[in-house]
Design goal:
The complex is a heterodimer of chains A (about 900) and B (about 120). Chain A is of the alpha+beta class and about 900 residues long. Helix content of chain A is about 55%, strand content about 15%. The longest helix of chain B is centred in the C-terminal third of the chain and has 25 residues. The chains are: A alpha+beta (about 900), B alpha+beta (about 120).
């Protein structure tokens, strides 16, 4: 704002600021300043009149002369106001008032526009919040960029056992490392509901995780109450201590502020509560998505030394050390790490990748999230196109209004500015509603425990999301407002004023813009629909995967037993338990396993006896320790050989059942049944081969698997698996009664349908598919609305023309076909463009597909047909209306 | 305000008017808007076709720059009027602007009285 244009000298910054302040202040003192000016101008005129009268003029003439000399009073005032204030802001206030008034007048338009915008913007905010939480925002730890995970990065086929390390290896590495400040870990094989909390009444099953003593320190998590573990609690025969999770403390102990130092009973042993973790720390959300962990105890290193690989490792890199340096060090040190110091013959030959914690937690989801983000982006584009169209339709009814304004002297820029202000008012209102929608969605997601996505609990709309909201609100307003603003402000003034409204066809260019808009809308919807179709089909393929077992009509329940570490007694207990449960009416069969498929897993080694293998030929093998009848109960299929029997006892020959993959790899071209295998160093006779089971993931390849009899191996907990036609709830009480009669200490654990385990495993995919499908449906509905709007509008515009045609003998069918043909022409062009774009887009999501080619013809054809049908439907309604036009009525219009 | 060439012409005039106002106040001392406008008209001998109203925008601009101050007072003929007077900064500015205009008008004078002096052509 240079007001001394010819003077190039620099003015002090202070001066500029003062002028700006003057201007801003003057805005708020508008009335006072105006009356001051009025008074001043009045006195000016009086001076002039007085002088003129002194020259001998009559009072009237004196006044007239004074006015002439002064020039326009209004103009002078206006210029003075411009000079003293912020004219832009004045205009903005004017435009805002005007926009609000005009939107209020056109209620139905405003409501529809705001709703569409709210959905579009709301979906964007919600998805952005998810993306922000999972990808953009740092993890809720101190200096999260220093935190890494040590473990296999890709191609891990052995499940958890090959992603973990022994206690001796952990301690050796922690002692030797030079690039890590801290190395820590947790015991990765803890089951859910693995501890019984004693107290009044029946014991309550709760979930505990054993962590290395420095676990919380390494991650920089400070307790909200009490303290972390001390060395006396961590070491050998340490004082039993536990730290509670915030939610467990709140739920179980009603946020008792006096909890620190109190003793609670875990598995019949007293344990002292030493701390409560902060609310922000959710172990499950970061390390085991979908799991709720109640409390933490120090991992007793002495007890797990002989259990092989059990610790999942993490570390904090030293200041100044790089990831590459750490990786180098790991590459050097890990292969030398001992499996068990006292058993030097076990050479585990560890390897590990150093992976940023953030990548470990959410790296796998990156692509899915980006797809989701793009999908909502497309939705917003469709919303913009739709609104452009609505605004253009509205423009038709406002042509005279703008022509009049322009006749009164409003420049093109001024009119565009007015129209864009309206767009901003609409999009801001939509954004406010959208924020509400997004808030509801994110709070729902944050409390949705059944989706196995990390960090879900911390999803919320934060400052970044609000900034994003502002950005998309402005971008949206510009996007949908610019085209109509250009079009409307360019209207030929004369033509518009002469125009009598309906009946006279609008300019062709106007129609063309609207057609292009509808075509692009259809194309965008087509891309969305095809993408969603491909993902949906992938999801159906995943659901269709042969799991190798049959989860329907099967429920599992964690059982508790006391065998006094006597194998014979254990066998007797389980045989009796299985017999009694199978006797319950409604139970078809029952069996016992230590681990369920798609749940916790561990792996051992198996090889054909007496064969030397090259490095890399063998693979970590998932091991399940089961009772006779378990395979049948869960629906696993024995391909050849036999199931275990109770006769395969502790003292008889060791037996094993392998899956087909193992049979094929170890005894290629031969029948595996009857062969001798070496299982973790001991001989075992292969008695059966079963079909491959999806043990680790539903989507991956089935790995190597073996099944060992409960009677011959030490099992790791026990799950009773029951096949029944009855709903699990109905059976629960009688099964629980039976278990209690055998072991009064049996805690009240949940009888969970196996389908739930499968659902949990596919939940991330289901989550994405649901969302993308929802967006696609939204996109199609919006596109259909767009088509309907344009066709319907053109029918209204052409009422007279159609009337004439009908009067000249066109049949109703002919008219109807004409309108539908018009619709289909638009839809067809859009679909062709959209299909081409979809081919490109589907390549980008290829890695997210399962059992579906990116160019899957069924999906493409199906989606194109669906879109075509929607377009047909959208065009049919106005077509019907057109065919019902009464020629005489139409011609009498105007 | 000052992108197009039409605007810069107005700016030039504004600059000129501002200087005229400063000079008038410097000569006459404290003066009201009408007095300033009349004085400029008189001095210019009506060669400047000034709408007297435009003076008020210039007065606001000069006040914002703190080169003049305004105060309500009573005129010689007992009328309430707003009186403007130069500030110290305004006096300094007047000296600078006057010198600048002097140089510019000398230059323009020389340019416009320039005669064809043969040259190489």
């Amino acid at each position: 704002m240079s007001s001394l244009g010819s003077d190039p000298r620099l003015r002090s910054r202070f001066g500029t600021m003062r002028r700006v302040l003057f201007r801003v202040f003057s805005l708020f003192r508008k009335d006072a300043l105006d009356s001051d000016l009025n008074e001043e101008l009045a006195s000016h005129l009086e001076f002039a009149i007085e002088e003129n009268m002194a020259r001998g003029l009559s009072p009237e003439e004196a006044r007239r002369q004074a006015m002439i000399r002064f020039g326009g009073v209004m103009q002078a005032k206006e210029r003075q106001r411009d000079a003293r204030g912020l004219p832009d802001l004045d205009i903005l206030m004017q435009d805002l008032t005007y926009a609000l008034r005009s939107l209020r007048r056109d209620k139905s338009f405003t409501i529809i526009a705001v709703l569409i915008l709210a959905i579009g913007i709301g979906a964007n905010i919600a998805v952005f919040s998810v993306v922000n939480t999972l990808l953009l925002r740092p993890l809720p730890f101190k200096d999260p960029n220093q935190l890494v995970r040590l473990g296999p990065i890709t191609g891990n086929k052995g499940g958890m056992s090959t992603a973990t390390y022994s206690a001796d290896a952990y301690e050796a590495f922690a002692a030797q490392t030079r690039t890590f400040q801290d190395v820590t870990g947790y015991f990765a094989f803890s089951d859910r509901d693995n501890v019984r909390l004693g107290g009044e009444g029946l014991p309550v099953p709760i979930s505990s995780i054993m962590v290395a003593g420095n676990f919380f320190q390494t991650f920089g998590v400070d307790p909200s109450l009490g303290r972390l573990f001390t060395s006396e609690e961590v070491g050998k025969n340490g004082r039993p201590a536990t730290i509670l999770s915030y939610s467990f403390w709140k739920r179980q102990f009603a946020s008792d502020p006096e909890i620190i130092g109190k003793s609670i009973t875990l598995d019949n042993h007293p344990v002292t509560v030493v701390g409560v973790l902060p609310e922000s720390f959710d172990f499950g959300a970061v390390f085991e998505p979908g799991a709720k962990i109640d409390l933490f105890t120090p991992v007793p290193m002495e007890e797990i030394r002989d259990e092989g690989n059990t610790l999942a490792l993490f570390g904090r890199i030293k200041h100044g050390a790089t990831m590459a340096q750490s990786q180098d060090e790991v590459n050097t040190l890990f292969p030398q790490l001992p499996g068990r110091v006292t058993h030097p013959e076990w050479k585990p030959g560890y390897t590990a990748g150093v992976q940023m914690m953030k990548d470990y937690v959410s790296g796998k989801l990156r692509r899915s999230l980006i797809v989701l983000w793009s999908a909502v982006g497309l939705i917003l584009l469709i919303v913009c196109v739709n609104l452009s169209n609505l605004l253009l339709a509205r423009a038709a009814t406002r042509r005279k209004e703008f022509a009049l304004r322009s006749a009164l002297g409003a420049g093109r820029g001024r009119i565009m500015r007015q129209l864009l202000t309206e767009s901003f008012v609409l999009s801001s209102t939509g954004a406010v509603l959208g924020l509400g929608l997004a808030y509801a969605t994110t709070s729902y997601l944050a409390h949705e425990g059944s989706v196995a996505l990390p960090l879900l609990n911390s999803i919320r709309i934060d400052g970044t999301a609000l900034i994003w909201t502002l950005f998309i609100t402005a971008a949206t307003a510009l996007l949908f407002g610019l085209v109509p603003a250009f079009k409307m402000s360019a209207k030929n003034l004369q033509e518009a004023l002469k125009d009598t409204g309906q009946g006279v066809s609008e300019g062709r260019s106007h129609d063309r813009v609207r057609s292009v808009l509808v075509i692009s809308e259809v194309a965008l919807a087509c891309v969305l629909l095809v993408g969603a179709g491909l993902l949906l089909r992938s999801f159906l393929q995943v659901l269709d995967v042969d799991l190798g077992f049959n989860p329907s009509h099967v429920a599992a329940l964690k059982v508790d037993y006391d065998d006094g570490r006597n194998a014979d007694k254990k066998v007797a207990i389980f045989e009796e338990m299985q017999r009694r449960v199978e006797a319950i009416p409604g139970v078809e069969s029952a069996g016992i396993t230590d681990n369920l498929p798609l749940d916790r897993n561990r792996s051992w080694g198996i090889q054909a006896k007496g064969v030397d293998y090259h490095k890399g030929e063998l693979q970590a093998t998932f091991v399940y320790i089961v009772s006779p009848g378990y395979l049948k109960s869960i629906g696993m299929r024995i391909r050849s050989g036999r199931d275990f029997t109770w006769a395969d006892g502790p003292k008889s020959r060791n037996v094993v059942i392998v899956n087909q993959t193992v049979a094929r790899k170890l005894w290629p071209g031969r029948d595996a049944v009857g062969q001798m295998a070496t299982v973790s160093g001991d001989d075992a006779l292969v008695v059966g081969v079963i079909d491959d089971v999806q043990t680790d993931t539903v989507e991956g390849e089935a790995g190597w698997q073996m099944y060992l009899p409960l009677s011959q191996q030490g099992n790791d907990g026990a799950q009773l698996v029951v096949r029944t036609k009855l709903p699990p709830d109905v059976l629960a009480s009688s099964v629980m009664g039976t278990l209690r009669s055998m072991n009064p200490a049996q805690p009240a654990t949940e009888f969970k349908p196996l389908q739930g385990v499968v659902d949990h495993a596919v939940s991330p995919r289901r989550f994405f598919v649901l969302l993308v499908t929802f967006f696609a449906v939204l996109g199609v509905v919006l596109a259909s609305l767009g088509i309907y709007g344009v066709i319907s509008y053109s029918v209204t515009q052409r009422t007279k023309e159609i009337g004439i045609r009908m009067a000249l003998g066109a049949t109703a069918e002919r008219v109807q076909l004409g309108v539908i043909g018009n619709t289909l022409r638009l839809a067809f062009i859009g679909i062709v463009a959209g299909t081409i774009a979809s081919f490109a887009a589907s390549k980008l999501i290829a890695s997210l597909l399962f059992g579906t080619a990116p160019s899957d013809p069924i999906t493409f054809i199906g989606m194109v047909l669906l879109l075509g049908l929607m377009a047909l439907f959208a065009g049919y309604i106005p077509a019907r209306r057109a065919s019902r036009i009464e020629p005489m009525v139409a011609l009498r219009l105007n | 305000m000052g992108e197009s060439s039409a605007d810069s012409k107005i700016d030039l005039l504004q600059g000129t008017l501002d200087l005229m106002v400063l000079q008038t106040l410097s000569v006459m001392g404290s003066q009201h808007g009408y007095g300033i406008a009349r004085r400029i008209e008189q001095v210019s001998g009506d060669t400047v076709l000034l709408n007297q109203g435009t003076i008020y925008a210039a007065l606001v601009r000069l006040q914002h720059k703190a080169w003049i101050v305004a105060e309500w007072g009573i005129s010689d003929n007992n009328r309430k009027a707003k009186f403007y007077s130069l500030t110290r900064a305004g006096k300094k500015q007047l000296l600078k602007d006057a010198a600048y205009w002097q140089r510019l008008s000398d230059l323009m004078g020389r340019m416009l009285t320039m005669e064809a002096e043969g040259g190489d052509r």
